């Protein structure tokens, strides 16, 4: 099939899709080390949550700063990027009926990322790089920290080159007809943003590395470092957004048979991401010196908020496609498509919870905190991690977990055991992370700083106290422990499945859904139908989007109101 | 299907509610866009980013002169200064302390020059939760007017090394 030699491929017994065996190997390798990173990050998360929960106050400050560096790097960089590499291999082969572009390049990708990850983790755990993820100069880590980061980034860049090469040979060998599928288009958008991101990482980290080696006498200018570093730091989170939305479309199809209402609209929204979302890096510099108010406003608005519009489009098209598929199956009423949805399928529940948590939690808070003036009452407080834990953790991570519940049976060809725990896991993680983020947001509204081990300022010359925030920090602690427990359950189940799970080679995977549900979904996937038939109108989603818009407006304007109480400042 | 190639003619205009929603989303984005310049010119709180580059040691010398000229006392070995109302005032973050303690008059506008003597710091004024970034090598000018009397803590909310959690300061506002 396609351009693959018969001995280098297999046909998936569940979906009938072709799987390139080389790509399959690299999907497995990257996914395994993604999960290893998640495990390290989750253990660190429990320690952090128990430190910020004032009544426990587990770690002393020096250990806290080390563990927070470990947590940020493993969760935001290693777990996410290893998983994204796995997605790129999948999207450029199976979905295009094509083979892996270049195995040597793929080995380079994997080896460099692995070496980089090990170097950075060694450096942090040895106490040689307690500089937190941002590593703002002139704080200095030991040189292997920067070198590890650079190697990891170069590895990821090779992964994107391999992906672009894969698109090229598939096109050249005419392995598919017409345009590429929507999920591949989303992965392509993520890969384009990744190139932009990684190049900025190289620009900022190479001189910093040379300084740490003593080759350069002084560190890079601190304002310049912040500007370029955030083109790495924030844009890498935009790769996550793109990859997450692509996973939403993928899981919506796989678990409910959903079909995008309008391919042009979905692709247009991805195009808006590519063009405008990178400007969001300015969100981190809104109260910085040496960048003007005009620069801050233009960039932080992503050029008139066109990337926000893109997210609002996906926020409608994704649930609408699920609703239309539900109506096609005969689920009536305004919300029959939700009440009768396959909530016991962790692929579906993880995807849908991710959509809701990202939209209502992450999206609304992100745009509000990233408003030029509102940032004055938010910058570097706990409101910031309160925002990004419901985007990257409650959104991207949860979506990737949902993906794993299908990747392990379909690619590793191993079944999950203890299925009752797997069905419960997305709810535990989603609830914990939401509770934690709400605690963070409320504590941050009182001025509690991020990256700070206590609120009583023990040892300070001038006493200060933020004791009022204690109940919210308890929420943070309890939510954090629940979320990390959810993540650990996921890791244990997945590791068990990969190494000890029942093999399903040569037959279809065991469905997560009831026989009736999976039959209906399979019918929708295999038959021709139009999501725009009369009688399939997504009325429930219309109601949900208006609730979303109302919540957005209330949160946004109440923040302007809170800003009025601050002393006049410019 | 999102995992299969779209039909040959996949380019089509949005229709139905999808089209309405795109219009609503665009209109909302315009509201968000206009809000920032509107507040910049009519509101009382914004961040202008006014800043000047510094030579090494220049800001430390300026701080020393400022303290010598205006010192009125000490608290726990941290000097308290009372500058003339409405003047340029100076604050340095370094070695896990905001120096000096500033004694200001309510309702008077001050130009606060801040910088760092070592790493990056976060100027965070409590309890109103007013936050600005302080970066070594740059004199960041924050022009503000104390609106109430009392004692207001400054803490550091940018990670700055092992003593970050002990870094505090104080602004005292009088009638």
Describe the structure in your own words.
The complex is a heterodimer of chains A (570) and B (175). By secondary structure, chain A is mainly α. Among the domains of chain A are: 1-177, no CATH class; 342-513, Cytochrome c oxidase-like, subunit I domain (Cytochrome C Oxidase, Chain A, Up-down Bundle). In chain A, 68% of the residues lie in helices and 1% in strands. Chain A contains 16 helices and two strands. Chain A has helices at residues 21-52, 61-93, 103-125, 143-172, 182-213, 222-256, 263-276, 293-300, 302-328, 336-339, 346-369, 383-412, 419-445, 470-500, 515-526, 539-564, and strands spanning 9-11, 18-20. Chain A has a two-stranded antiparallel sheet with strand order 1-2. Chain A starts with 8 loop residues before the first strand and ends in a 6-residue tail after the last helix. Chain B has helices at residues 16-42, 58-70, and strands at residues 51-53, 71-75, 78-81, 88-94, 97-99, 101-105, 110-116, 121-125, 130-134, 138-144, 150-156, 168-174. A seven-stranded mixed sheet of chain B has the order 2-3-6-12-11-8-9. In chain B, strands 1-10-7-4-5 form a five-stranded mixed sheet, with helices on one face. Chain B has a single domain (51-174), classed as Cupredoxins -  blue copper proteins (Immunoglobulin-like). The mean pLDDT of chain B is 95. Chain B has 175 residues and is α+β, with helices and mostly antiparallel strands.
